[in-house]
Recover the amino acids of this structure.
């Protein structure tokens, strides 16, 4: 895992991008290592929340230039080469889809640049806390490309249409104060990592089954009608209802102590 480190404590998994000299740009091995790490966290059942952060001045400046030297991203005119290109793009997309598919919430702590693939990743997270110097950009359009790893598909649910279209067509920059004002960021914080970890601790203190089901319900509701979402919620709550967790939540809330809840099962 050359591009990031990972630790886990008190139900909080923390994945840190560790190439600050390169603005945490993502090299080719990342696209295999990262989804494998997220899936392992999700399967393990111990972590109740995942925090993503970047060391140094920037969260993530997108793909490292070395990625574009891969032969698959330099297709010739043959149908076979372009078919392979499409499969590789789907693989890159899946590397961030694991964040939305994870049973646990994912929080991004963002400072400095969050552009290109960094924005693709942030848009797949559940919560985003941003530092005053954070900025967001659909960088692909500035280098003659269409963004294809998730920003144009997820950001319509997170930003106003006109704002996103200007970013997608002009390569314009969305700064942190406006991102917070538009609701893309949960909060604007000077100590962005501390804010993200505080939110993570709050999530970790809740019943894991209830949190996981809430994420599943929100994801489903985003892509379906209200009627479909209500039906899914009825079935989902019937599946995860656990009276001991409810009684424990009531007891610990009154006592202002930490609850002992049923963990997610290892997959």
């Amino acid at each position: 895992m050359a591009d990031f480190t990972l630790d886990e404590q008190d139900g909080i998994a923390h994945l840190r991008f560790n190439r600050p000299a390169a603005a945490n740009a993502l090299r080719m091995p990342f696209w295999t290592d990262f989804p494998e790490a997220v899936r392992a966290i999700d399967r393990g059942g111990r972590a109740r929340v995942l925090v993503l952060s970047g060391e140094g001045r920037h969260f993530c400046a997108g793909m490292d230039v070395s990625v574009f030297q891969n032969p698959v991203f330099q297709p010739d005119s043959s149908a076979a080469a372009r078919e392979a290109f499409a499969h590789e793009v789907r693989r890159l997309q899946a590397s961030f889809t694991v964040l939305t598919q994870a049973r646990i919430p994912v929080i991004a702590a963002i400072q400095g640049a969050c552009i290109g693939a960094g924005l693709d990743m942030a848009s797949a997270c559940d919560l985003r806390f941003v530092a005053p110097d954070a900025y967001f950009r659909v960088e692909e359009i500035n280098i003659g490309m269409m963004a294809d790893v998730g920003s144009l598909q997820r950001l319509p649910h997170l930003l106003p249409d006109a704002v996103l279209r200007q970013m997608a067509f002009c390569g314009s920059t969305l700064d942190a104060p406006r991102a917070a004002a538009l609701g893309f960021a949960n909060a604007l914080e000077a100590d962005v990592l501390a804010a993200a970890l505080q939110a993570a601790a709050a999530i970790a203190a809740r019943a894991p089954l209830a949190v996981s089901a809430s994420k599943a319900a929100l994801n489903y509701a985003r892509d379906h009608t209200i009627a479909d979402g209500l039906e899914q919620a009825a079935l989902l709550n019937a599946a995860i209802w656990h009276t001991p967790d409810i009684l424990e939540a009531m007891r610990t809330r009154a006592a202002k102590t930490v609850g002992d809840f049923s963990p997610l099962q290892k997959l």
Notes: Residues 208-255 form one domain. The chain has ten helices and nine strands. The chain has a mean pLDDT of 95.
